[in-house]
Amino acid sequence: MYLTPNELIKNILNEGRNRLYEHEAFKLLELSGFPVPRTGLAKDVGEAVSIAEAVGYPVVLKIVSPQVLHKSDVGGVILNINSSKEVEEGFNKIINNVKKHVPNAEIYGILVQEMVPQGLETIVGSTKDPVFGHIMVFGLGGIFVEVLRDVSFRIAPLEFEEALEMVDEIKSNRILAGFRGSPPRDKKALAEIIVKLSKLVTENPEISEVDLNPVIVFEEGKGAKIADARFIISK
Ligand SMILES: Nc1ncnc2c1ncn2[C@@H]1O[C@H](COP(=O)(O)OP(=O)(O)O)[C@@H](O)[C@H]1O
Ligand SMILES: [Mg+2]
């Protein structure tokens, strides 16, 4: 379907849109070699069930709508779905939840996604500054970013060693190193994602903002996976 990340971005800009739908964001990441869960877009319940069977249970269902930016705030995410019956129930539940919270929401479809195993939630992002160009951001998920603002920054593009420094630089780095029975995390996998994203945004100047949140990181040596992605693009 899409040949290159750049063609995908150009097609969306030509449609007059500035935000990628979630399935497009995951397609872009997959085309660029990022570690992503198996993902498909369903337009109806039947399609959701067949995608779930192909992906393998457990799966996650998520709303895809131009009016919904924070999916879980409107009941638009259901985790740990284990059967075709649960897919059917979850599909309808999400649509009802979204219609209740955002009455004018246009429902583009429902994302059916492999459930990523338990891990530590981190964020990797990029913003575009008029002076410095693309700036990379790293932090731990949840309160660490939202309340404590514990993040590190670098100007893109960057090399692996710099990305690893970024990961080590946050104040809560002991949590990544292993803390009270929780294992040391795969920092190299995080650094690889940061380097790849810095390359992607540098090669595609149309990308003005990226938020990979969460990037779920596993034990050392076991990698990381991107569970949600938001891309803002402009001409
Ligand atoms: N594929 C997945 N596997 C496991 N957990 C997930 C997956 N997708 C989302 N989650 C969990 O659900 C939360 C909300 O989903 P997300 O896609 O980030 O929606 P939003 O940020 O728009 O509310 C995530 O922060 C993560 O904790
Ligand atoms: Mg998210």
Question: How does this structure look, described?
Answer:
By secondary structure, this protein is an alpha+beta fold. It has two domains: 5-114, ATP-grasp fold, A domain (Dna Ligase, domain 1, 2-Layer Sandwich), CATH 3.30.1490.20; 120-233, D-amino Acid Aminotransferase, Chain A, domain 1, CATH 3.30.470.20. The chain contains eight helices and ten strands. The strands form two sheets. Strands 5, 6, 7, 8, 9 and 10 form a six-stranded antiparallel sheet that branches. Strand 5 and strand 6 form a beta hairpin. It is globular. The mean pLDDT is 95. Bound molecules: adenosine-5'-diphosphate and magnesium ion (MG). The site of magnesium ion has 2 residues, from loops. Adenosine-5'-diphosphate binds at residues 37, 60, 62, 70-72, 77, 79, 113, 115-116, 121, 214, 227-228.
CATH fourth-tier homologous superfamily of the largest domain: ATP-grasp fold, B domain
Hetero groups in this structure are:
adenosine-5'-diphosphate, magnesium ion
Computed over alpha carbons, the radius of gyration is 18 Å
- The chain-level mean pLDDT equals 95
Helix-strand pattern, N to C?
HHEHEEHEEEHEHHHEEE
Strand content: 25-35%
Report helical residue fraction: 25-40%
Whole-number count of domains: 2
Low-pLDDT residue intervals, each spanning 5 or more residues? none
What is the second-level CATH architecture of the largest domain?
2-Layer Sandwich
Broad shape? globular
Largest sheet data? 6 strands, antiparallel
Kindly report the CATH topology of the largest domain: D-amino Acid Aminotransferase, Chain A, domain 1
Q: What is the highest CATH level, the class of the largest domain? A: Alpha Beta
Instruction: Report the span from N to C terminus.
Output: 22 Å
Helix count equals: 8
Number of extended strands:
10
